[in-house]
């Protein structure tokens, strides 16, 4: 029996209808957001990358594996209010320029090795993992590599590969990384993986990693 004086807030059918509308709207929003995110995080191609470098425009958020053939920087973007990766001129990586196929294979090896050796047990990669050891998302850009003169190796990539194979000997922090029995080939793959990861636009994540702050002095994210 309907009572005209009953307030709408106590009407069951009002709440039922509202619930149906809110659920429907949220479902559509989630589907849209999912497609948007997948678009944002899917890897670009070598053609995208070359075009972006030639036109000095922003690349895809996740550049192609061939980004290992370029210098990666980290620069303040005043409009966005944080630092973003920059892709500069070409540089050799382990003494050569990598084809699209070889770069993808090397990156794949690095990713598999990072999973097999469980780097995330101690480190964080793109927001996943632990904080026992430094965040690896931007580890390629860590000024400590230069500071420690690549542990006597000629280039940064060789220095990091050396570190990964002799971590206790060459560590820069008080907490030491164990020797995980990483082979030379796996180390190469891991360095490609780290370099590629540093080129991903992560909206300034991790927040406490900065190229403009001396990490070593201030004990920032990369100096636990
Ligand atoms: C058992 C814990 C542990 C595991 C597993 C581990 N690490 Fe580490 N790692 C550390 C610690 C501790 C440090 C800091 C040591 C230092 O700098 O002397 C470190 C430092 C590093 C650094 C130097 C970071 C920087 O910016 O200074 C890199 C690169 C690195 N690890 C890569 C890796 C990779 C790649 C893996 C997987 C293959 C891995 N680690 C697995 C503990 C670990």
**Poorly predicted residue ranges:** 213-224
Order of strands, main sheet, comes to 1-2
Biggest sheet features = 2 strands, antiparallel
The amount of helix comes to 40-55%
Q: How would you describe the overall organization of this protein?
A:
The structure is a single chain. The protein is mostly helical and 224 residues long. It folds into two domains: 16-40; 41-218, Cytochrome c-like domain (Cytochrome Bc1 Complex, Chain D, domain 2), CATH 1.10.760.10. Helices cover 42% and strands 9% of the residues. The protein has eight helices and four strands, in the order ααββαββααααα. Strands 1-2 form a two-stranded antiparallel ribbon. Helix 5 (156-165) packs across helix 7 (184-198). The longest helix is centred in the N-terminal third of the chain and has 30 residues, at 12-41. It is elongated. The structure holds heme C. Heme C binds at residues 113-114, 117-119, 121-123, 132-134, 136, 139, 142, 144, 160, 164, 171-173, 175-178, 180, 190, 194, 222.
């Amino acid at each position: 029996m309907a009572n005209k004086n009953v307030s709408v807030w106590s009407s069951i059918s009002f709440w039922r209808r509202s619930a149906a509308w809110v659920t429907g709207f949220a479902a559509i929003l989630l589907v849209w957001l999912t497609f948007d995110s997948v678009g944002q995080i899917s890897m670009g191609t070598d053609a995208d990358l070359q075009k972006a470098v030639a036109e000095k425009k922003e690349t895809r958020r996740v550049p192609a594996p061939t980004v290992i053939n370029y210098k990666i920087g980290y620069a303040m973007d005043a409009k966005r209010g944080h630092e973003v990766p920059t892709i500069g001129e070409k540089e050799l990586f382990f003494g050569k320029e990598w084809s699209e196929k070889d770069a993808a294979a090397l990156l794949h090896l690095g990713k598999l090795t990072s999973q097999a050796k469980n780097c995330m047990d101690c480190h964080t990669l793109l927001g996943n993992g632990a904080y026992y050891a430094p965040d690896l998302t931007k580890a390629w850009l860590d000024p400590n590599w230069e500071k420690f003169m690549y542990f006597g190796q000629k280039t940064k990539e060789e220095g990091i590969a050396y570190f990964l194979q002799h971590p206790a000997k060459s560590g820069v922090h008080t907490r030491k990384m164990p020797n995980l029995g990483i082979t030379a080939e796996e180390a190469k793959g891991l360095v490609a993986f780290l370099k590629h990861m540093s080129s991903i636009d992560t909206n300034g994540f991790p927040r406490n990693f900065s190229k403009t702050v001396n990490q070593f002095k201030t004990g920032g994210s990369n100096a636990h």
